């Protein structure tokens, strides 16, 4: 059993290194994923922020959690693209002809998504600090925020894996991310849900992004989190488990 476990982790480290080399040779991917949310943050804070009644004097603090989720949703679309490319080029078949653990080919892309999105999140937070974002919370709160963002990234990455393995075209592989990127706009990410029409408000308050945004916002501001963190974790874990099962099923079917 120990030998099998060691073999699995060795194979996974090789696949992870391969995917990370692709990222390092194409830094425009991370730049593109990071630039769009930063541009959006600049637009909302310095152009639209004065007209938005968010109930706070520091709109950057209010806005940041939603911007981070949009960055992650944009980033995972590249995971789907890279998976689709590997499938179309027959890379998976070549790896499967070698004596390696088959699932490590998929896990390499997943771990790469975690690392690349973490880089984007850190850069966006640094820019937010320059724009006036402030948080006096301790290390535990920041670790809780990091944990939620990691779970969210994992969940969306496995959704991306389904799209990458099932798509018939490059456009189809990345199109799944558009509705996910749009979800924060119908949530409490930019404005309080109380300002929305009744039907829109009902949807906004019961979709996953609102619970995740509210949990992160409360953690960063040092406010009581309440049930939001449990709802956020339930959404992330639920999506992660379902997406993982369907991704592995699509992977086995494809191969």
User: How many helices does DSSP assign?
Assistant: 11
Oligomer: single chain
Q: What is the CA-CA span between the terminal residues?
A: 26 Å
Q: Which class best fits the helix and strand makeup?
A: mainly alpha
Contiguous low-pLDDT stretches (5 residues minimum) are none
- The ordered string of helix (H) and strand (E) elements is HHHHHHHHHHH
Mean pLDDT: 83
> How many structural domains in the coordinates?
1
The biggest beta sheet is recorded as: none
Radius of gyration: 19 Å
Helix content: over 70%
Strand percent estimate:
under 5%
Beta strand count: 0
Judging from the principal axes of the Cα atoms, what is the shape? elongated
Q: Can you describe what's shown?
A:
By secondary structure, this protein is mainly α. The protein has one domain. The chain is about 80% helix and about 0% strand. The chain is elongated and about 60 Å long.
């Amino acid at each position: 059993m120990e030998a099998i476990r060691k073999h699995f982790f060795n194979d996974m480290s090789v696949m992870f290194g391969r995917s990370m080399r692709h990222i390092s040779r194409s830094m425009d991917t991370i730049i593109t994923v990071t630039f769009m949310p930063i541009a959006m943050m600049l637009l909302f804070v310095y152009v639209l922020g004065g007209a938005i009644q968010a109930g706070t004097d520091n709109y950057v603090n209010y806005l940041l959690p939603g911007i981070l989720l949009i960055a992650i949703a944009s980033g995972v679309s590249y995971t789907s693209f890279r998976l689709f490319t590997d499938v179309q080029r027959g890379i998976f078949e070549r790896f499967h002809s070698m004596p390696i653990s088959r699932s490590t080919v998929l896990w390499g892309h997943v771990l790469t998504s975690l690392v690349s999105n973490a880089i984007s999140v850190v850069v966006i937070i640094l820019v937010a600090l320059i724009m006036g974002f402030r948080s006096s919370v301790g290390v535990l709160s920041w670790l809780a925020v990091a944990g939620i963002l990691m779970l969210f990234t994992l969940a969306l990455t496995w959704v991306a894996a389904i799209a990458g393995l099932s798509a018939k075209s490059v456009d189809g592989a990345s199109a799944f991310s558009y509705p996910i990127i749009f979800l924060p706009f119908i949530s409490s990410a930019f404005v309080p849900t109380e300002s929305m029409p009744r039907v829109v408000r009902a949807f906004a308050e019961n979709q996953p992004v609102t619970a995740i945004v509210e949990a992160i916002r409360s953690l960063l501001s040092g406010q009581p989190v309440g049930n939001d963190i449990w709802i956020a974790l339930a959404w992330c874990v639920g999506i992660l488990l379902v997406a993982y099962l369907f991704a592995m099923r699509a992977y086995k079917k494809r191969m």
